[in-house]
């Protein structure tokens, strides 16, 4: 613990025995906390909730609002580095924390990526390929933008959207007024609808010294706008793989990220890569790395924010990851024994309430091919539902 007002220590690695402060308390923080405790670190977490997925693993669970700047400062005073698993922390809160401990990645990375408009404007300005888009502040803006972007299009709130929340597809110009009301919010991005062939992502890490490591290119299948299954590696030609990794590296460097960042892409029918969005933290599509890679995305986050050398990421066997959503609990407790009869790894996040669409856990399978791993993980997940559940 340092005295109030003391500046954060300058540089040098943050070694085992030190304390990691995690803003946010969900499953991403939980898996980071597991990696951190394995390597002998202490973990503190701050969020407005109690008995959280991260808090169950952490040494200390602070319950406070993210905009309670006094609480955030106190939190930072008691840790050696602050990182986050939830990106909608305000610039004021990250600045308050930065008075007492290094914040990694820097608050400026959050500021850019927590708002779609800022993120897309930054990416386009830096020369990265993004979906054509227009800034919308009013019904007039939307009517003017539609002919320019074309139909179909998708209207997204500029801030605080994830897993398809705050998004409305527009197929006819007449839908425009209703779309603004349905998307909610007061500032939007109108995007061209991309008839993509596949969705891909690259999870990568960048160390405090600029070192770069990645987990390859993976393919993501979504259901109801939520990630459903990831297959790693993606079955794409080497030139696409090299291009996607190159773009990811460029984005981490352009944003000066110290930590982990995920770039989600659309691959069009013509073989072009377009960035859909960035997440400045470990990502659901990188969960396979816990079971398939020597150092997981969470260990990389830990190493990066502590200023340590990045770990080895080379995957030994193809893998697939299937999310377990709260819907699987509709008929009572899932049949864990039936799923575990398959060669899978089970990860559960310690959430007591299983709501539809809520990410409760995931399964990972390793196999000789990605397709075989996907087959196994889907069969194991299907076995969770008892035959009389009627799902
Ligand atoms: P997002 O929250 O922006 O990642 O969007 C969630 C999902 O909606 C994506 O993973 C896509 O499956 C779909 N989606 C979003 N934007 C577009 C778009 N411009 N064109 C086609 N599909 C989209």
List the main descriptive attributes of the protein structure presented here:
391 residues; alpha+beta; Rossmann fold; Dna Ligase, domain 1; 3 domains; eight-stranded antiparallel β-sheet; four-stranded parallel β-sheet; 12 helices; 16 strands; 27% strand; binds adenosine monophosphate
Give a nutshell description of this structure.
The chain has three domains: 19-103, Rossmann fold; 132-192, Dna Ligase, domain 1; 196-389, ATP-grasp fold, B domain (D-amino Acid Aminotransferase, Chain A, domain 1, 2-Layer Sandwich). The protein is of the alpha+beta class and 391 residues long. Mean pLDDT is 94; it is low at 1-7.
Which small compounds were modeled alongside the protein?
adenosine monophosphate
Distance between the termini: 52 Å
Could you say what the CATH architecture of the largest domain is? 2-Layer Sandwich
What is the radius of gyration computed over CA atoms, rounded to a whole number of angstroms? 21 Å
In total, the number of domains comes to 3
Number of strands: 16
**Outline:** globular
CATH class assignment of the largest domain: Alpha Beta
User: In terms of per-residue confidence, which ranges show pLDDT below 50 for 5 or more consecutive residues?
Assistant: 1-7
Q: Can you write the helix and strand succession as a string?
A: EHEEHEHHHEHEEHEEEEHEEHHEHEEH
Mean pLDDT: 94
User: Order of strands side by side in the largest beta sheet?
Assistant: 13-12-9-10-11-14-16-15
Give the CATH topology of the largest domain. Answer: D-amino Acid Aminotransferase, Chain A, domain 1
- In helices, the fraction of residues equals 25-40%
In DSSP terms, counting alpha (H) and pi (I) runs of 4 or more, how many helices?
12
Percent strand: 25-35%
The oligomerization state is single chain
Structural class label? alpha+beta
CATH level 4 superfamily of the largest domain: ATP-grasp fold, B domain
Question: Biggest sheet, in brief?
Answer: 8 strands, antiparallel
